[in-house]
Every structure is written in C-alpha cells, then in structure tokens.
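Protocol step 4 of 6: structure prediction from sequence.
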Amino acid sequence: MKKLVFSFVLLVFSAVSVIAQDAAQQPSNPNAAEITFVKTVHDYGTIYQGGDGTCEFKFTNTGKEPLILSRPQSSCGCTVPTWPQEPILPGKSDVIKVTYNTNSIGPINKTVTVTSNAKTARVVLQIKGSVVAKPTATLPEKTGDQGATPVSK
C-alpha cells in the first residue's frame, strides 16, 4: 500500500513539473505593448533649494496593443510621479512627469518604478543631481562721507 501511495505522489509531482516547464517556455505575446523611453535617467545637475524639481520622461508605445500604465512607485515621498491614466495607443507618445521636492539640501538619487502591460513589465526611471542653498543677497556697503552733517530744510 505504501508503494502505491508513493508511486501516485511521484506521478503527480512529475506531471506538475512538466506542466510548469511548458508554461515557462511559452513565448510571450508578440503583439504586446512595448514601452520605449527617450531617456531613463534625468540629471538635474546642481539646483537651488526651493527650485523647480520637475522633469519629464517621454515614452512611446512601440508595440501593437494599447499600453496601460499602472501606478508608478517612487522610492520616497519627496518624489511624486504623474502619469497618463488613459491607454496609450500603438505608435503614440506621452510623458511621465516627476516632481522632486527641492526643499532639502544634499544629493538627489531617487527612482520611479513604472509597471505596465508591456513586454518589459517594469522599467526603473532615475533622477539625480544635487540641491544647494540659495546664495544670500548682500546689501552694498555704505560709502558716504562718515563725517558729513545732514542738511535740513
């Protein structure tokens, strides 16, 4: 009886393994949407504290089916992505806007992960640069005659 149960379990395990291998080897949809970005890294360079931290990542659907973006996820709360809510038709382009909060001084190295129905389901966008303090405005030094007497009218 033990041999019969063992043989049955072994047969089921083998069948599941074969099915899993077949599923893994199936080709992906050749007509699927394809997301192609102009750039995946934006370098702000050096920007001043409180400056404009907005950039755009332009992309095109180079596939044969409509492209649907899921909610892009940023690596922290200081980076906010805005993306198109409607499907992007084949051959059409759009942008994902990323706004970085530039109120903190220091280096910028953040990511936004874009998930979609494209052949490449996840694409990571990166922003980098450095935020520096605004230069302080100084008033010109008074150069008038220190010993002068004010004139009254």
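Step 5 (inspection) to follow. The beta strands are 35-37, 41-48, 54-61, 73-74, 79-82, 93-100, 106-115, 122-132.
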